[in-house]
Design brief:
Elements: E1 4-9, H1 14-25, E2 30-37, E3 45-48, E4 51-54, E5 56-57, E6 68-71, H2 75-87, E7 91-94, E8 123-125, H3 129-145, E9 147-156, H4 163-177, H5 209-222, E10 228-234, E11 241-249, H6 255-263, E12 268-270, H7 282-285, E13 291-298, E14 305-312, H8 316-332
Parallel strand pairs: 1-2, 1-6, 2-5, 6-7, 7-8, 9-10, 12-13
Antiparallel strand pairs: 3-4, 9-11, 11-14, 13-14
Length: about 325
């Protein structure tokens, strides 16, 4: 069996470290592992499959011996380094926003559109975390019932802002409990004990950049221009994004059909027993790779529609795991080398 030489760019970051863990558990036979990060972290050790690997600087010349490079170093670093990695012979799977809407770069969720990988020219983009869990739930419904409209409200964890977001929530919570002044740096308002209906900057159309990502990325991944109306909210949760999704179908349905379709889809876990108050919770999904769906019910305000509650770990399926799953698909489909 062929083995592969893998690099992780941003290996010491919040998502990069999760990538290393997901890669460690993956089916990819790894011959050689190279953790890459900024210059000041050179020499730090990263554990991978029983060995300690020293961090090297992410720069030109570091990809000549690499088959697949997993990037989680931000858009600016990806814009500079991804073309260099491709020129040096690596296939790049990038977790930043840099390449997502580039016409020549496939935007991939392996359970949804793996065939798009065949069009890659060296770079594959990992979608936004909130988009990933939504399209995993929507794709089987689209294929079975057709979809005419989606309304989604997201409740996104502070880990979506990285370590800074987590730290701010911790510091503000401690300050409030100690009756001290609250410092606001990362978010436009206090996040502790609050909900902020703004993620990223506002666009001219009144939506935030985060919200509009969900529109554009959904269209690109599903290859159909379904109307999507999003509202993105930051909530004081450390890890795990939750979404309330309303879906209108093209044809009539029985609720049992919806359950069957979702239960039969790889990557989806149904947690739905309202009699026992059982439904997906962010705290229960932390560290798990699935997309969890519950509160599935008919929308009686429209002719043919449902509401559902969808939760996933934003650092795993929303980022690190999906990136590694893309790499696994590349290997399985013989698209590396």
């Amino acid at each position: 069996m062929k083995s592969y030489r893998i690099a992780v760019v941003g290996a010491l970051g919040a998502v990069g470290s999760q990538m290393v863990k997901m890669l460690e558990k993956s089916s990819i036979p790894v011959e050689y592992f190279k953790p890459l990060d900024v210059a000041q972290n050179v020499g730090e050790l990263v554990e991978f499959r029983g060995s300690a690997w020293a961090v090297q600087e992410a720069k030109e010349g570091k990809f000549e011996d690499i088959d697949i490079a997993l990037f989680s170093a931000g858009a600016a670093a990806s814009k500079h380094l991804a073309p260099i990695a491709v020129a040096e012979g690596a296939v790049v799977v990038d977790n930043s926003s840099q390449w997502r809407m580039d016409e020549g770069v496939p935007l991939v969720v392996p359970e949804v559109n793996p065939e798009a990988l065949r069009t890659h020219n060296g770079i594959i983009a990992n979608p936004n975390c909130s988009t990933i869990q939504m399209v995993v739930a929507l794709k089987p419904l689209l294929d079975t019932f057709g979809i005419t409209r989606v309304v989604v409200s997201t409740y996104q964890a502070v880990s979506g802002s990285g370590v800074a977001g987590i730290s701010e929530l911790k510091e503000q919570t401690a300050a409030i409990m100690a009756n001290e002044e609250v410092s606001v740096r990362v978010y436009p308002h206090q996040i502790a004990f609050n909900a902020i209906p703004q993620i990223d900057v506002f666009l001219e159309n009144g939506y935030t950049k985060e919200e509009w990502k969900m529109v554009d990325e959904t269209h690109k991944i599903l290859a159909v221009d379904i109307p999507v109306s999003p509202t993105a909210v930051r909530v004081p949760v450390y890890r795990g994004h939750s979404e309330s999704i309303n879906v209108e179908f093209e044809r009539s349905f029985e609720l049992e059909e919806v359950y069957h379709v979702l239960e039969s889809t790889p990557g989806i876990v149904i947690t739905d027993d309202v009699g026992k108050s059982e439904y997906p919770l962010a705290i229960d999904c932390e560290g798990k790779g699935g997309v969890y769906v519950g509160r599935i019910r008919r929308d009686f305000s429209v002719k043919s529609g449902i509401n559902m509650w969808v939760v996933s770990d934003n650092l795993l399926k929303g980022a690190a795991l999906n990136t590694v799953q893309i790499a696994e698909k590349l290997v399985q489909m013989g698209l590396v080398g």
